[in-house]
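My main concern about presentation is that the manuscript never shows what a single data entry looks like. Each protein is reduced to its one-letter sequence and a matching series of backbone shape codes. For the editor and my fellow referees, an illustration may be useful. For illustration, here is how one protein appears when written out as sequence plus structure tokens:
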Amino acid sequence: GDEIWKQTGGKVDYLVSALGTSGTIMGVGRALKEHNPNVKIVSAHPVKGHYIQGLKNMEEAIVPAIYDPSKIDITIMVETEDAYEMTRQIVKQEGIFVGMSSGAAMYAAAEIAKRIDSGTIVTLFADRGEKYLSTNLFSC
């Protein structure tokens, strides 16, 4: 969180993170809120029955002890295909070889961008595409 704060010059309005173990969103979110309590913490939360590897729907998973839903300001529900499609777009358009949880995070960030007139949205890409080469993620 401190590194993000420094790199953005303190101009963070939204932090978007996919929800896996929740360590990233809880830790980075806490650090950013220490700098500015008005920063909105956004969870890219997979729908029930999803196939987004590395992510957890907290209603059907074993909830990690670190997870505190009261620290999440906004939840964006992400369908598997939306995460997959966004992953493919990032790879093709930006040349960043990310995995499906990164696609979920970017999908949620794009949804936040549709809702606001201005502001700085920071999202984290916590996985790489290499580990998904044996899946249908990149078979287009």
About this structure: The chain has one domain: 2-132. The first helix runs from residue 2 to 7.
